[in-house]
From TrEMBL:
GO cellular component: cytosol
Top-level taxonomy: Bacteria, Bacillati, Actinomycetota, Actinomycetes, Pseudonocardiales
GO molecular function: oxidoreductase activity, acting on paired donors, with incorporation or reduction of molecular oxygen
The protein's name: Putative F420-dependent oxidoreductase
Organism: Pseudonocardia endophytica
Luciferase-like domain: residues covered: 20-119
SUPFAM superfamilies with a match to the protein in the record: Bacterial luciferase-like
Xref: InterPro entries: Bact_Lucif_Oxidored (IPR050766), Lucif-like_OxRdatse_MSMEG_4141 (IPR019922), Luciferase-like_dom (IPR011251), Luciferase-like_sf (IPR036661)
Pfam families given in the database record: Bac_luciferase
Amino acid sequence: MTIDPGRYGIWRRANGLGPELAQEVERLGFGAIWIGGSPPADLAVAESLLAATDHLVVATGIVNMWSTPADDVAPSYHRLAERFPDRFLLGVGVGHPEHTGEYTKPYATVVEYLDRLDALDVPVAGRALAALGPKVLALAAERTAGAHPYLTTPEHTRRARATLGPDALLAPEHKVVLDDDADRARALGRPAVQTPYLGLRNYVTNLKRLGWTDADIENGGSDALVDALVAHGSPEVVAARLTEHLDAGADHVCAQVLTPDGADVVPDLRRLAGALRLG
């Protein structure tokens, strides 16, 4: 079993995805779509994207372990893996304590969930784990195909690769705004960073581990922090920033392209694909 998402993909919430967009993403040369926003266990969104395309990899980024029992998602995984061999990656994660009343012993919960996926014959090579800190990154390397870190920087990618070792998949997400005006770009990017992530313990802990301070995190995030987490500028500048993740050890980087509310994302995807020379 070999799932190859390519070097570049896109990350987008399920309510912003559909078959026509998946077809365009594939035509542009991106290797994968990551479905954000805790898609439900039936994986119907993933199935619709896979059915509309020929070779695009579809991954979940991520199925939430608290709200989606392994026993519910495993049959859906097997359905997709049989229908679309080597094209579906089940990304799972433990979510955030602020959003989950039962959030106790999260590491133990992750281990138990992976144990249950083992028992349900979901292969190690067919699943990935949301991971930020060293302990969960090491678990991702041991028990899954690899790690899907969210809200990170190339420096985190460098550290993550050192923890994962040379063989595990490393597929970070990075937000981007294709706009040369820094003030406009930050105005669009800051809310996507601030709400909810700068109020969530696991992300704040990770940012502080990378050297960011309370002053950077407070009041919606400093300009420096927003610039680190949201690449902005011309398509070429943004493409170079994404490529920094590959240079730091990532196998694949998925861009979350931010646009003003209601704006069509396809024009920006086309511009970014051109800068990445995907055609």
